[in-house]
Amino acid sequence: MRAAWYEKNGPAPEVLMVGELPDPAPGPGEVRVRLHASAVNPSDVKARAGSRKIVWDRIVPDSDGAGIIDRVGPGVEPSRIGQRVWVYNGQWERPYGTSAQYIAIPSELAVPLADSLSFEQGACLGIPVMTAHRCIFADGPVTGKTVLVTGGAGVVAHYAIQLAKWAGAKVVTTVSSDAKAVHARTAGADVVVNYRNENVVERIRAEAGGVDRIVDVDFGKNLPVSAAVLKPHGAITCYASTSVREPVFPYNDLLRLNISVRPVFVYTMPDAAKALAHADIARWVREAKPIFAIAERFSLAEVVQAHLAVERGEKIGHVLLAPL
């Protein structure tokens, strides 16, 4: 099969290669998917750069994709052959991810893809939407509640806004530019605050009084705002803390609010949470006509450019590869 891979951690132009590798065979409980689209996420480029050390001879990067099951391993119903699916966590604790023509993956990580979605859209459903779902719903329904989604133009935030609106919440979000504000409003945000030129706490209090839930892209950096706008008995779900890796926790302020703080790491989500997300995502696709923002498309031969596009952090939307 045609694939991209690296054999050591480092900068994309120095370590990524494209060539031929043996076709994978599905093992017990696995399916093989012929991939039509693959997505490059920030976690994928960080892993290649060195956040996860290599313990195999080579790594085929990237974890999300979509395609058609063409083979099944022992213990998997043959009826799955020919099924359109989206896949996620493809390269988590395995050497071969989705930057290839084929991937062999546990059957439960190959989720049926609605006929209404393209393979490109299916490749967008993985880590970002699974993360957004967990962040929105891990602490119960949000119907009638106010949800703050920080960094509203980010890929996870884009889906968190949509899922929260689908579930009946009022959504407040923060952005850093007019273009990002437009993107967040398109996703359905009710209140958009530009944190570069507005007082976030004052604006949120004026517009909503406070918030019941926070979905946070930079937990440590945003803690002062979170503590100031979160209502009693609220919850913060956070999927990154890039600016402040080991934040100082304002314990007394949050203690009085009786709040919950929940880090979310999609790769190790409980199985029950994954199953709930699969079911809810299928309903959301049927009922809400979700919006997918695709920033750039690359061929497999352009995998270096794809990784660099994600690393620059300037894009609004997904970066996709075409493995075929």
Overall description:
With 324 residues, the protein is of the alpha/beta class. The chain has two domains: 2-124 and 292-322, Alpha-Beta Complex (Quinone Oxidoreductase, Chain A, domain 1); 129-267, Rossmann fold (3-Layer(aba) Sandwich), CATH 3.40.50.720. It is 33% helix and 26% strand. The strands form three sheets. Strands 3, 4, 5, 6, 7, 14 and 15 form a seven-stranded mixed sheet that branches. Strands 10-9-8-11-12-13 form a six-stranded parallel sheet, sandwiched between helices. It has a two-stranded antiparallel ribbon with strand order 1-2. β12 (230-238), α9 (251-255) and β13 (260-263) form a beta-alpha-beta unit. The longest helix is centred in the C-terminal third of the chain and has 18 residues, at 271-288.
Strand count, sense and closure of the main sheet?
7 strands, mixed
Task: Please state the average pLDDT score.
Answer: 96
Total count of helical runs of at least 4 residues: 11
Number of strands: 15
How many structural units, i.e. domains?
A: 2
Given the C-alpha coordinates, what overall shape results?
A: globular
CATH superfamily of the largest domain: Medium-chain alcohol dehydrogenases, catalytic domain
Backbone structural class: alpha/beta
Give helix % range: 25-40%
Beta-strand residue fraction: 25-35%
Low-pLDDT ranges: none
Strands, helices and their partners?
Layout: E1 2-5, H1 12-15, E2 17-20, E3 30-40, H2 42-51, E4 64-72, E5 84-87, E6 102-106, E7 110-112, H3 119-123, H4 125-137, E8 146-149, H5 155-166, E9 170-175, H6 178-187, E10 191-194, H7 200-208, E11 211-216, H8 219-229, E12 230-238, H9 251-255, E13 260-263, H10 271-288, E14 294-299, H11 303-312, E15 318-322
Parallel strand pairs: 8-9, 8-11, 9-10, 11-12, 12-13, 14-15
Antiparallel strand pairs: 1-2, 3-4, 3-6, 3-15, 4-5, 5-7
Helix pairs in contact: 2-11, 4-5, 4-10
